[in-house]
Design goal:
Elements lengths: L14 H13 L3 H15 L5 H17 L3 H7 L10 H16 L8 H14 L8 H9 L5 H26 L7 H11 L15 H10 L3 H11 L17 H17 L3 H13 L6 H13 L11 H14 L4 H17 L5 H14 L4 H19 L10 H10 L4 H20 L3 H14 L8 H20 L4 H17 L6 H20 L2 H9 L9 H20 L3 H14 L30
Helix pairs in contact: 1-2, 1-3, 2-3, 3-4, 3-5, 4-6, 5-6, 6-9, 8-9, 9-10, 10-11, 10-12, 11-12, 12-13, 12-14, 13-14, 13-15, 14-15, 15-16, 16-17, 17-18, 18-20, 19-20, 20-21, 20-22, 21-22, 22-23, 23-24, 24-25, 24-26, 25-26, 26-27
């Protein structure tokens, strides 16, 4: 309890009373009294808990910290909302100090916290609604009312001064529009609800707040310039990307506005690129945007005079427009016509591009006759080259050739190519012992050769045998071990298919086995000849020359084994050679051919020789 000058007890001391006294002392520049009063509050009553008292207390502490240059303390203490609970004069004093702080020494002191504090304080003081009655404060200090026109002029002048200062600091620091203090200042003034303390390290306000502010205040170009500098490839701007989701709405709006401007300027490709990015950002095109896309698509790549016609630009632009308006038949027709026109122009000098143009035209317009005709002409040319051996057949798809033959039943090259292809499949299937597949392929061979009606099994077998024999002839002509081996395999398969009427095939097959044995005798090891013999492709006693070749191989290997010390192996080889040579003439032929000896079949232990 306090006692006044008369000795009577005075009113009780309260926290609010001490706060009133501290604010009064601060406003009267009695700064040496303010701090003791605040300390008295804290020691006696503790730090205020009530919202109004807490705001008044912290603002006073922040103002005192700013006066002595303790800016980290000032920034930390000053709230960014509910400033109308504090004395306007104290807020004004703190705001002036922060603005001076930013101006000091050409902007050397440009901490984010100080800038944020200045923005929040001045946005509050210069708000048009004047929530803190800043105008009344100035009126009291002037001793006279401030006329409306002077008040508005002074307010706008101070707003401009702050804007210019923040802009200069942004330019000096190289900050773009999304991170600019000027942007934060404008956004705070516009809504008085931007929480600057929640901003990331690259700006005073969150990125999405900055983007929304820029586009809502007709600064979409500034937004796009800044965003493009950060993300140079607009093709990656998608709504489902975590990098772009926050700004997707603002970016889409800015891009749509720029797209309309580019349409008005006749920048058709650029406008279509903008609207495509709008769609990637997840925004459906409204009526106005769709009309702009249609206009750009109709004009892209060409001019009124026709002198600046660019087929590539036109196709690319029409592709974008068609993707944006897939249901628009006029765009699809324009794109198809341009693709076909360019496919025809490039037919001879750039077949690959020509083919791609026709194929794309068929995707856009599946039943377009000229596009289909262009692709068919390319396929005919491929077939002619493949049949002449100039182009590998593997580059041609059988289904495409069958489709061509359905559309053009008289196409001889398609029929011949399919006949040859099925012949290859028949031989391959028969070699792999897949007889059902081989016979099915042979039926197609007969069909493409001009055969009509069902094919009997005897005819199918005869054609398959012919195909195998013909392929065997080509394989033997290679003169390689693989060729001789394949020849034997093919003829063996043919023998198994052929009937009694083609008994001569057995002789061709046995001759092939003998040729392979003699080839191995001169180019491979004795063991290779012996392994051929053990495969039981031809029994002993059928060909004297074959038997002699095998016997010689056993004897040669026996001598080699003796030199290597393998006496048991050498002994077994000599026994085998003796068994094979039991019915052979005493002197085998070294040169020339030997007539085949037909004799009763004997088992010389061929399954057990090794």
């Amino acid at each position: 309890m306090q006692v006044d000058d008369t000795g009577e007890p005075g009113p009780p001391v309260t926290a609010d009373g001490l706060l009133d006294a501290a604010e009064h002392a601060f406003l009267n520049a009695e700064f040496d009294l303010v701090r003791p009063l605040l300390q008295h509050i804290r020691h006696t009553f503790g730090t205020p808990d009530a919202e109004e008292a807490a705001v008044r207390y912290t603002v006073l502490r922040a103002a005192l910290a700013a006066r002595v240059g303790n800016w980290s303390e000032a920034v930390r203490r000053c709230p960014d909302s509910d400033l109308n609970l504090a004395a306007t004069g104290v807020v004004h004093a703190l705001a002036v100090s922060t603005l001076r702080r930013l101006e000091e020494e050409g902007g050397r002191h440009t901490e984010f916290g100080t800038a944020a504090l200045a923005i929040v304080l001045w946005a509050y003081l210069l708000d048009e609604d004047d929530p803190g009655d800043f105008r009344a404060l100035l009126t009291g200090r002037r001793g006279a009312a401030v006329p409306d026109e002077l008040w508005e002029e002074a307010r706008l002048q101070l707003l401009g001064r702050i804007t210019d200062l923040l802009h200069a600091l942004d330019v000096r620091a190289g900050r773009d529009a999304l991170a600019a203090w000027e942007t934060a200042w404008e956004a705070e003034r516009a809504i008085l609800a931007v929480f600057l303390s929640d901003a990331g390290p690259h700006g005073l306000i969150p990125l999405d707040d900055a983007a929304r502010h820029l586009v809502s205040h007709d600064r979409g170009h500034a937004l796009l310039d800044a965003y493009t500098a950060r993300h140079p490839d607009p093709a990656t701007w998608t709504a489902d990307s975590s990098d772009h989701r926050a700004c997707a709405d603002a970016l889409a709006q800015a891009l749509a506005e720029r797209g309309h401007g580019r349409v008005q300027a006749g920048e058709w490709s650029e406008a279509l690129a903008d609207f495509s990015t709008v769609a990637r950002l997840g925004h459906a095109l409204g009526t106005e945007n769709r009309a702009a896309v249609l206009r750009a698509g109709n004009n892209v790549g060409r001019s009124r005079t026709g002198r600046d016609y660019s087929p590539i630009t036109r196709i690319q632009g029409l592709e974008l427009a068609h993707a944006l308006l897939p249901e628009d038949g006029s765009l699809a027709a324009e794109l198809t016509a341009e693709l076909v026109r360019q496919g025809q122009k490039a037919f001879d000098n750039d077949p690959r591009q020509s083919r791609n143009r026709f194929a794309r035209a068929l995707v856009v317009s599946p039943h377009h006759r000229d596009a289909r005709s262009g692709l068919d002409d390319h396929l005919r040319a491929d077939l002619r080259r493949a049949l002449d051996g100039v182009q590998p057949q593997e580059k041609i798809r059988a289904e495409a050739v069958r489709g061509l033959l359905r559309r053009d039943p008289d196409c001889a090259s398609a029929r011949r190519w399919l006949r040859d292809r099925n012949a290859e499949w028949a031989v391959a299937a028969a070699s792999g012992r897949h007889m059902a597949a081989a016979r099915s392929a042979v039926r197609h061979v007969i069909q493409y050769d001009g055969g009509e009606g069902p094919c009997g099994e005897e005819l199918v077998s005869s054609v398959l045998v012919d195909l195998l024999v013909n392929e065997a002839w080509f394989s033997g002509a290679e003169g390689t071990r693989a060729g001789w081996e394949r020849r034997v395999d093919l003829l063996g398969t043919a023998v198994g298919i052929a009937g009694p009427a083609r008994d001569h095939l057995r002789e061709e097959y046995e001759a092939a086995v003998l040729d392979l044995a003699e080839y191995l005798e001169t180019t491979a090891s004795p063991s290779d000849v012996i392994e051929l013999f053990l495969r039981d492709l031809m029994r002993t006693g059928v060909s004297v020359r074959f038997d002699q070749t095998v016997k010689a191989a056993y004897l040669r290997r026996a001598r080699t084994r003796e030199k290597e010390g393998d006496l048991g192996g050498a002994r077994r080889d000599r026994v085998c050679a003796k068994q094979i040579g039991g019915d052979l003439p005493d002197q085998g032929l070294l040169f020339g051919s030997t007539p085949r000896i037909r004799r009763r079949h004997h088992d010389f232990g061929q399954e057990t020789l090794f």
